[in-house]
Give the backbone structure.
Amino acid sequence: MAAHLQSYLAELRSHLDLAPEASADVVRELEAHVEDAILDLEAGGLPADAAADRAIDRLGRPRALARQYVQAYTTTSWHDAAMAAAAFLLVGALYATHLWPWPPAVAGVAVVVVAVTLVGLWQGRPTWFYAWAGLALTLLSFCGYFAFVLLDGSADAIGQAHFRPVQMLGFGGGVLYFPLALSILASCIRAASRRDWLDASLMLTPSVPVAVWLFVLHQNGGIRDGSVVVPEADSALAATFLSMAVAAAIFVRLRSRTMKLATMLAASVFVVIAVSSAYDPDLTFSSLTGRSVLLLALLFSPALVEKLGVPTLKPR
Amino acid sequence: MRNLAQLLKGNTDILILSLLSIEPMYGYQMIKELDRRSEGLLKLGEGTLYPALHRLEGAGKIKSRWRKTPGGQERRYYSITQSGERQLHEQSSAWERFSSAVNLIVRPT
């Protein structure tokens, strides 16, 4: 009996194109169901082996059942795709209209992003949630930039022994910020990876162009002056977020995890090429390859988190 | 019987939500309860029930967590959410109106 059931479940699992945790949950639930069905059939007078065979037969063919599960788990709508794309379009519009230096515009977008993220969290993390959560996490990059500037300025003053107490506080705050921000980011990646590391990767995507943009502007005199020295930065970022909006919509609508992975890979390479061309036209092939590898390593880090056996949701 | 099976397929969601509005249940318990309450007329298959449960959970209409049954086994219990309650109310109202309309035609007074 046990061998028959395990053979059935193994075949079912082989056809389940779902995240490992989801597949494990499906198998575990069906196994429990068959146990209950066998007990009922045995109570009705059936011998153990016959009860097991009948309970397993009632499940139907493994491939057909797996197909229904995949459809149920990956059902998304054009509404979900539009919601995911809207996240990137909103931020892209900020750069396309050159409104990002205007505090009310930035504050308005930040409030919308955080509010929609919280709504998504309350609704149980629908498929579009990770696009908005990723944008909310870019606030960490912005705060990190200001913490870095604060740290830089305070360190200079402390180094020259011309500092005020508030600069010590600024230095301390700057030092404390980075481990705090990293732990928040790590927690978010772990939480997202529990369901599917692909969702966590989608969540990480907006942080990269924002971090690169901040770096390029800082190299060119800071956020205000840098945007004047590198005027094409706004257009490059707007185009990046537009392409990410398209990629996110496709990603959300796709059922196959392999195709989701392919979409993410293609979009990532495109973003690296597009952004590098805008900021660094003399970029060599080896530098471009290096940047692509770094980006892919970041985007696939949630897969490593999952492989290393991140504690998943376990029953009490 | 085929007609009943077809009707059952098209009304799985309202049946699941109705059961869960009574109390949290796990999958096998729902199949048994549905069979009992319908006096044996409605038999929901495993291949229909579990994918429907996961689809409803993905849509935020129900939620689940693993916990022990009174007998000590670990089972995945499902419970209805506020969004699910609203959908149940809407679908129940729609069903009442529909069945009244059909009865007016099929069994005219």
Notes: Chain B touches chain A at residues 26-28, 32, 45-47, 50-52, 54-55, 57-60, 63, 65-67, 73-76, 81, 83 (CB under 8 Å). The mean pLDDT of chain B is 87. Residues 82-106 of chain B form the longest helix (25 residues). Chain B is about 65% helix and 15% strand.
